[in-house]
Amino acid sequence: MQSRPRQRQGQERVITGNRQTSWAFADAYVAEDDALHWARERAREAGLRSVTPGTGAALGLLAATVDAKAVAEIGTGCGVSGIHLLHGMRPDGVLTTVDPEPEHQQFARQAFRAAGFASNRARFIPGRALDVLPRLADAGYDLVFCDGDRLEYLDYLDESLRLLRPGGLVAFEGVFGAGRTVGSGPQPTEVLRLRELLRAVRESQELVPSLLPVGDGLLCAVKR
Fold this sequence. Notes:
This protein is α/β, with parallel strands linked by helices. Helix content is 46%, strand content 20%. Helix 2 (34-46) runs antiparallel to helix 5 and helix 3 (53-65) runs parallel beside helix 4 (80-88). Pfam families: Methyltransf_3 (PF01596). It comes from Streptomyces tagetis. InterPro entries: Cation-dep_OMT (IPR050362), SAM-dependent_MTases_sf (IPR029063), SAM_O-MeTrfase (IPR002935).
């Protein structure tokens, strides 16, 4: 009777190990070019988090899937996610990217140029997202990518629903909260806000959601 639990534990270890290996393989499946490596290095030097290669590849795929011509990005960083989005967008598409740090956006400009994108492919707007987003056009965007202040994600959701056309897509980066979103015990406010976001997206009648296990969790939803 005691051997069966040990066998299951062994099987669980194998399954867990296989999952971790598979996730690592998936995350590195799409190779990144020199421009992306350069942008990642600038982000590391600035102490900024960047989307993983797997998350970036997913963003490019999502942009291509909706044939994105207009994309809004909350959180420019040093341009890693922006390059992936631009790779998936239409050749005449424009990325509108918002960040409170103009210095970071200058790095992103250089990265976009190094990746071969013309200057008119991106519109850089410095400022707080919640100050900038209300100025953007209703139903004017095919995709909204949110990678800003986690405490403001629910507000970003409200703005995204206004900004997106029917059939458009919103994506939120980092919703696993480094594993804390599903953790037990007391959690910081940021994690509680992420849980609220997950519930709101899942229960919304306006959205068709999916939670992708790439990077630190990519929450996606299509606007009906």
